[in-house]
Amino acid sequence: MKSSSILPMAASDPLPRMEEKIFKGSAMTKRGAYAAISYMICAVLLVLFNKAALSSYNFPCANVITLCQMICSCCWLYILQRWKLISFNSNESPVISENSKTLIPLKTLIDTSPLAFTYLLYMLVTMESVRGVNVPMYTTLRRTTVVFTMIMEYVLVRQKYTRPILGSVALIVLGAFIAGARDLSFDSYGYLVVFLSNISTAIYLATISRFGKSSGLNSFGLMWCNGILCGPILLLWTLFRGDLEMTMNFPYLLSPGFLIVLLLSCILAFFLNYSIFLNTTLNSALTQTICGNLKDLFTITLGWIIFGGLPFDLLNVIGQLLGFIGSGLYAYYKLIGK
């Protein structure tokens, strides 16, 4: 039966052998390349809009933004699935999925609960990490995620890497430490939260790599499970902390500018989560992390122009350039299949 899906859906099964490569000898498919590029575009824009909400408008409740993003994501997924535009299961047409009694079986929800809880940790810590560090240094520190990702992939799926890949990652980390050594706006709490964000990101991506390919769900199905399992927990957490009350008393709550920023943040979060699942399942958790490094050039440039916060320093620039060179080398080795 012909599928009416309007968006590509990453299957949990291994890719078929006839999947078209970027060029002969490449280790990356065209679908994988499109997923990687889509992720980088969404990630750049989302960081800027989250930064605008938390810093420019001084919105005090990062958890509420995360909750709004999660609710919007679940609503859009439900509507798209009911309109037979998407399916939650791999290798299943949207029409067949619509005839099912339940969107996702209870057993599948239970099986994917580790992924959902790592997603919740990833969302909460990552959102908070944007607040305390300027955008250029935030993206610099986030590059160290590659080390944590490689460790988690080895622990969970025994993934091993070639020397060229290890060398390019080492260059990325060296650049991050050089760039951060002279940060004149150093904030110990902000740095700590960013490193916690790196660890949670590595755990989350490695969990996607492990569960995403064995759950029988595609990218939309995994996103649905995350929202259904994490949404109620996050709602109770925001009630317990008093975040919802603080939100109701926020002076710019009904400001058109703030509402537009919040809406765009929710839309971008939906597409970002989708592209993360797609990129990680089509490529790998490490490739997803390196894509995060490559998009940093645009994030740093725009963040520096819009938000400022980091004085010019030659050592910082050298560190940034080393990180970009390392990311470029990784992309090159990945493309040629080394």
Automatic annotation (TrEMBL):
Pfam families: TPT. Residues 39-330 form the Sugar phosphate transporter domain. One of its GO terms (cellular component) is membrane. It is a multi-pass membrane protein. Keywords: Membrane, Transmembrane, Transmembrane helix. The keyword Transmembrane helix applies. It is found in: Membrane. This is Sugar phosphate transporter domain-containing protein. It comes from Fraxinus pennsylvanica. The lineage of its organism: Eukaryota, Viridiplantae, Streptophyta, Embryophyta, Tracheophyta.
